[in-house]
Amino acid sequence: MAERGAYRCVECSREAAELYRDYRHGVLRIAVCKSCQKPVDKYIEYDPVIILINAILCKAQAYRHILFNTKINFHGKLYIFCLLCEAYLRWLQLQDSSQSTDPDDLIRYAKEWDFYRMFGIASLEQTSFLVGIFIALWWRRPKMLKTKSDFILLLKALLLSSYGKLLLIPAVIWEHDYTPLCLVFIKVFVLISNSQAIRVTLNLNRVFPWLAIFFGLILENGVVCLVQKIGWDV
């Protein structure tokens, strides 16, 4: 168990001193929230697969369990892997756009430079998206992001909620006529997950997180236009 007061009730998001009480000899009792009178975290008894399914369904309770009541520290590695998936998708599209059979072109595309360039562009675009979200939230609700820990927690939530990008690889491997539509659905799913992560982390309504995401998308598309104008994506 973590420090006292570090937990949240998955139902009402109020702070809790503990998740359960250990009476020794294997006897455990789940703590009850003093605010809503419900178990603080019912998910501590659930199988990880059930928790994952609930997270995929974007249930707020599952998000609170993952963000506040567990010690997950692989969000950075997960996000880098998601960027690698997106860079790989762009790299494949770059190869498909070239119909040249010149040996020099084959050698050039065999180099790793194109993939690294796609990774850099994907990282730049995603960074602008996150910066746009933070700017919108700080501009409209500065009191919610007044400490460094608030920024770190929200960043962790956004990185973890982008796990849907892992679906890019299966969508490309099992390519079919509906692949472009699948990519759109993956994008929408990631945005919905990001919205839920913002809502749960800052305890907001359903509308304001979407406004922040919309601002992030505007900034991201601005970077996309800039990259296309410079010609880095060619």
UniProtKB/TrEMBL annotation:
Pfam families: Arv1
Superkingdom as given in the UniProt entry: Eukaryota
Keywords: Endoplasmic reticulum, Lipid metabolism, Lipid transport, Membrane, Transmembrane, Transmembrane helix, Transport
Membrane topology: Multi-pass membrane protein
Annotated compartments: Endoplasmic reticulum membrane
Entry function: Mediator of sterol homeostasis involved in sterol uptake, trafficking and distribution into membranes.
Family designation: Belongs to the ARV1 family.
Record protein name field: Protein ARV
Species of the source: Chrysolophus pictus (Golden pheasant)
